Structures are given as C-alpha cells and as structure tokens.
Amino acid sequence: MLDRTSLVLTIIGGINWLLVGLFRFDLVAYLFGGQAATVSRVIYTVVGIASLWCISLLFRQRVPAREYDE
Question: How confident is the model at residue 68 (pLDDT cuts 50, 70, 90)?
Fold first, then answer.
C-alpha cells in the first residue's frame, strides 16, 4: 500500500514539474496559495518523501506474480 501511495504522489509531483517546465505554472502553488504557503510546503515535502521511498523500489527483489489455475 505504501509503495502505491508513494508512486502516485511521485507521479503527481512529476506532472507538477512538467507544468512548471512547459508553462511556468505551479499547480500546487496555484491551488494552495503560493509556494511559501504552509499547505504548499507540506505537499512539496510529502511528495519529496514519497519520491525518496520510491528509490527503494529500484533495489528490491522482484517476486514473480502467481499464476492461477483455472
């Protein structure tokens, strides 16, 4: 569950950076009152922590999916 949540937050952060890069539009800052607003800073921090967690996905042992017999 934590892996999926972190991945979703990282994707949202990536989309926000895409908007910043292409259009100079920071969606988080727009929605929550600017980059310096407390809520925006909390969101940036949570997305950053989620991206750090996602680094661990690169180094985990992959387990093959179970095959179901019908």
Answer: low
